[in-house]
Structures are given as structure tokens and as C-alpha cells.
Amino acid sequence: MKSIDTIIIGAGPYGLSVAAHLKAAGVPFRVYGTPLESWASYMPEGMLLRSEPFASNLWDPKRRYTFQRYCAEKQIPYQAYGKPVPIETFLAYAEWFRANAVGETTDVRVTRVTRAEGGFDVSLADGTSVRAKHVVLATGHMAFQNLPAELKSLPGTLCKHSAQIKDVQRYSGRDVTVVGAGQSALETAALIREAGAKVRLVVRKGGIQWNAPGTDSTRSVVAKIRKPEAGLGAGWKIL
After folding, report:
1. Within 10 Å of residue 24's Cβ, how many Cβ atoms?
2. What CA–CA distance (Å, rounded) separates 2 from 49?
3. Residues 180, 173: Cα–Cα separation, whole Å
4. pLDDT, tens digit (0-9, with 9 covering 90-100), for 174-219
5. For 20, how many CA atoms within 13 A lie in the half-sphere containing its CB?
6. How do strand 110-116 and strand 2-9 relate by DSSP bridges?
7. pTM exceeds 0.85, yes or no
8. From residue 208, how far is each of 28, 90, 239 by CA, in Å?
9. b/e map of 155-183 (b: 16 or more CB within 10 Å)?
């Protein structure tokens, strides 16, 4: 059985960022998973990131591979605030980060992790196993989708979580109800409406939850103290 110091399960933004730090530190590692799989395969086409451009970086220790630098190299207009990042741009940036800060990843799923002497045995979908001293879980959010109890019994053809939309064009000409008050609900409703669907938004709260316009450069000191900027919007709750 092959042995390595650290295995990272998941090749999304967190997994790649951890890998970049291990590489810089000279720690042997291996990343298992499809790079940015949930972003590339499940997020709706036309989606814009909620995070501001300055907060849309993957993380390497010397900050050499920021989103701002990627935009400069690719001659993409950049501003820190107020210019939402399209998912296609973010995916291209993440691949650039992986190539420069991490290197190769292994596109094989991990099926099981068990305790072993001195570490862990990691079983892979291709039938092989690897032993590691350390295992980092960076498996993302796809396993934690939540549907209201009233909707869980509906078949997948009639009810989907917003993380499973992807092709918005398939909703053209259909009547769709979106349940939610936050960014995912509002953006999903807008995208499928643009694709030609009849859309209604059902909000189970007193109103929608959306960030007020403005940037830290235009807000007063008092406003910044009352609602500090967190990259995903302003406010102490987000921090």
C-alpha cells in the first residue's frame, strides 16, 4: 500500500487552498476529487458569485495567485467592490490557481476512510488504497442540502435544491415556484425567468434578504462600524 503524509479529500476552493499551503511548506500531499466539481457541474449557468471580487480568492500563503492578479494577466477588468464575478470567470481562475499553486490532482473519489496504525487507510473508487498520516476533509456543501419537510417526498423531477439547477434553459416555458429569501433563491428565480419560465417567489419570512448597495469606499465610518464588510456582504451576522 502506498503511503503519503497528507491526503486532501476534495478539490474545491478549500481543498486547493490547503494544498497550496502544504506545497509551499514542502509537505508531501495528494488531492483526490474532481476540481471545482460542485461549482462546474451543479451551479446554475449565468450565476454570479455573492462574494465581492476582493473576497473571491483561493488562498496561497504568499498571496501570489489572487483573483486580482489573474484578471491582470488575462486582461479582465477588475474592481474590488461592486462588480459581481461570473461563475465561468471564477472557474477559469480556480483552474489557473490549481495549475500554478498546487499542481496535479487525482480525479478519483474516496469511498472510505478508516483508522490505521500511524494514521488512516483511504479507499478509492478505483479499488486501490492509500495510507496517510493526516487526512483533510474538504468535501464541500453538496451533502448538506436541506429541503423543507413538506417537499422532501416530491420526486426529483418536480422538486430540486438550488444547488442542482445547472441548465436553466430546461425550465423555459414552465411554471416554477422558488422557495427562499436569500441569494440562492433570488438568483435562481432571476435566471430561470430569463430563460423563459413563469416564476413566483415564496418567502417564508418578513422580506427578502439581500445586501444593500454601496461599497466600503462610499460608506461612512459609522456605517462601517455598524455593518462591517465581510466579503459576502456587510453586517456582524455575516462576520
Report:
1. 13
2. 39
3. 22
4. 999 999 988 889 999 999 999 999 999 999 888 887 665 555 666 7
5. 25
6. unpaired
7. no
8. 47, 26, 20
9. eeeeebebbebeebeebeeeebebbbbeb
